[in-house]
């Protein structure tokens, strides 16, 4: 039997957007074992596996779902969604997904590339004309590959003071102005260093190339395949003349 295990980890209080996190992994259980055990025993085993992280203090909270075909074998929450507020995790908790969005950002960029709306070799200034490159030639490929050298937003005191990830009033323009005025960490293309700033900038480029908000563009990518086929992808949207 193969069951899909969907695990969700907790966010912090005051997340700026309602985002849903689903981390998919395949849990393979031998068919003979599954058929030899009563259903209740299997569910108990799944429950034990899913809740182990919380019981062993390796996780603050988690929501897990195990599905076999059309049958939901397990749907249960464990631990807390907010430790300070002593709020229990529930199966309906909305969880901040953090850097998991990077895979959706990259997929959206590639969809737009396939639709002919942008090229990975486009200079960043094609889409963000006022971005200060300080003599570097920064392409979308550099941003995707973490080789742009753009200053890291996590290390910018102004953004820390804004409580960027917890403050829904922070505007894109304010963040963009701060990132663009910081010096590069290294000449573009010479080093690879994990970059949140690069993918944040790609989010702006997605909006400009697609004519959609980032959220509307990438949301279909996070849906199950049957639903995804019914939703309009970011590559299908017409680009407004003003963008």
Describe the structure in your own words.
The chain is α+β, with helices and mostly antiparallel strands. It has 2 domains: 2-96, no CATH class; 99-236, 3-Layer(aba) Sandwich (Beta-lactamase). It contains 10 helices and 5 strands, in the order E-E-H-H-E-E-E-H-H-H-H-H-H-H-H. A 5-stranded antiparallel beta sheet has the order 2-1-3-4-5. A hairpin with a 4-residue loop joins strand 4 (71-82) and strand 5 (87-88). The protein starts with a strand and ends in a 15-residue tail after the last helix.
Question: Main traits of this protein?
Answer:
disordered C terminus, disordered N terminus, Beta-lactamase, five-stranded antiparallel beta sheet, 35% helix, 243 residues
């Amino acid at each position: 039997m193969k069951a899909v295990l969907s695990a969700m980890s907790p966010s912090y209080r005051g997340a700026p957007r309602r985002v849903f996190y689903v981390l998919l992994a395949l849990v393979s259980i031998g068919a003979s074992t599954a058929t030899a055990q009563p259903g209740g025993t299997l569910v108990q085993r799944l429950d034990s596996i899913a809740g182990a992280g919380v019981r062993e203090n390796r996780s603050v909270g988690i929501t897990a779902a195990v599905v076999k075909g059309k049958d939901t074998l397990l749907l249960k929450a464990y631990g807390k969604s907010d430790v300070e507020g002593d709020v229990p995790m529930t199966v309906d908790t909305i969880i901040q997904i953090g850097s998991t969005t990077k895979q959706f950002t990259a997929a959206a960029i590639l969809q737009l590339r396939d639709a002919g709306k942008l090229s990975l070799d486009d200079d960043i200034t094609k889409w963000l004309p006022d971005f200060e490159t300080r003599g570097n030639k920064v392409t979308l490929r550099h941003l995707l590959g973490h080789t742009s050298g753009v200053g890291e937003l996590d290390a910018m005191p102004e953004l820390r003071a804004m409580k960027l990830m917890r403050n829904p009033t922070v505007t894109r323009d304010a963040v963009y102005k701060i990132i663009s005025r910081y010096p590069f960490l290294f000449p573009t293309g010479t080093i690879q260093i994990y970059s949140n700033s690069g993918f944040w900038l790609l989010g702006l480029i997605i909006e400009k190339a697609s004519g959609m908000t980032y959220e509307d563009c990438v949301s279909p990518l996070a849906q199950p395949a049957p639903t995804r086929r019914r939703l309009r992808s970011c590559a299908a949207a017409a680009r407004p003349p003003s963008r």
